[in-house]
Design brief:
With 289 residues, the chain is an alpha+beta fold. The chain has 7 helices and 13 strands. A hairpin with a 4-residue loop joins strand 1 and strand 2. The longest helix is centred in the N-terminal third of the chain and has 18 residues. It holds the Pfam family NTF2_3.
Length: 289
């Protein structure tokens, strides 16, 4: 993974900004400050003019471009074969982590603050703080191999609210309730484009038969245009893996029988992946057939 593994993980298709945390944490000359543990020594792999800090900065730029490419091979090239990322709950292999990175939505705006850099000889250890990624910012440590310019290891510095499913997770009910409040605001807009953004491209709602995203959006707009009231109070929820939440809600649409439905929500992308009803209501609209 990358120094920003965590950082870049969040980066797929996103803007990159480097912000020094300490005013004194700037480019340090190749001589002096020998007693400073963050003294930036020369990098054997990079040109003699590059300090360890500069090597890390350039790697982060390369990582950003790689993530923006959405090319699996290019992104995988950022990590050594044995790379692992250690979170609070699980340890991810290179393959698993690259997969998570590919799920990061384009347009995510992140800010990376380089906290520290330590040249250890054959590699560089560094800590990065990443903000702008929902639901919370994170801080992680990475080890960058100088020779092959690939990440050897990544690890969360502290356990904060979910990061790609590797950190301590927030209560699922709280996450879903925030999403449902957002859904109410989107519904009020009566915009088919905004409503469509709530659903994954492959979204299907299964009631009496499968209904694709396009049909679901069409029917919701029809309900709203007719003045129908749509309510969906949360009943229960749980984390189900891959950073997703399965939740049950009571769906209440004017002129329809109330019924329970199960949805799979992806907090990272802020979209519904799928939905299904428990049964076929006696009074139905096309979207629930």
């Amino acid at each position: 993974m990358s120094p920003s593994l965590l950082v870049l993980c969040l980066l797929a298709g996103t803007s990159w900004a480097f912000v020094p945390d300490d005013p004194d944490f700037r480019r340090i000359p190749s001589i002096g400050y020998p007693n400073d543990e963050f003294y930036l020594t020369r990098n054997a792999f990079a040109p003699s003019s590059d300090t360890a800090q500069q090597v890390v900065e350039k790697f982060l730029v390369r990582m950003t471009r790689s993530l923006e490419s959405k090319d699996v091979a290019v992104i995988a090239g950022l990590f050594q074969p044995g790379f692992v990322f250690k979170g609070c709950r699980i340890t991810a292999t290179k393959k698993e982590y690259v997969g998570r990175l590919l799920e990061i939505p384009s347009g995510t705006k992140l800010t990376f603050t380089l906290k520290s850099v330590l040249d250890t000889g054959s590699s560089i250890k560094f800590t990065v703080h990443v903000s702008g990624f929902r639901p919370a910012s994170i801080e992680a440590n990475f080890i960058l191999n100088k020779l092959d310019q690939q990440l050897e290891l990544g690890k969360l510095s502290t356990c904060s609210r979910g990061f790609l499913g590797f950190s301590q997770q927030e209560n699922s009910n709280d996450v879903v309730e925030r999403f449902l409040e957002h859904v109410k605001q989107v519904m009020a807009s009566r915009s088919s484009a905004l409503i469509g953004n709530l659903l994954d491209e492959g979204f299907v709602f299964k009631m009496c038969e499968p209904n694709p995203k396009s049909k679901v959006v069409e029917q919701i707009i029809s309900f709203l245009s007719s003045g129908a009231l749509i309510e969906f109070p949360l009943i229960e929820s749980k984390w189900i893996g891959q950073g997703q939440i399965e939740y049950t809600a009571e769906v209440n649409v004017s002129m329809m029988d109330r019924f329970k439905a199960i949805f799979v929500y992806h907090p990272q992308r802020n979209v519904l992946m799928s939905g299904r009803g428990y049964w076929c209501p006696s009074k139905r609209f096309n979207v629930f057939y």
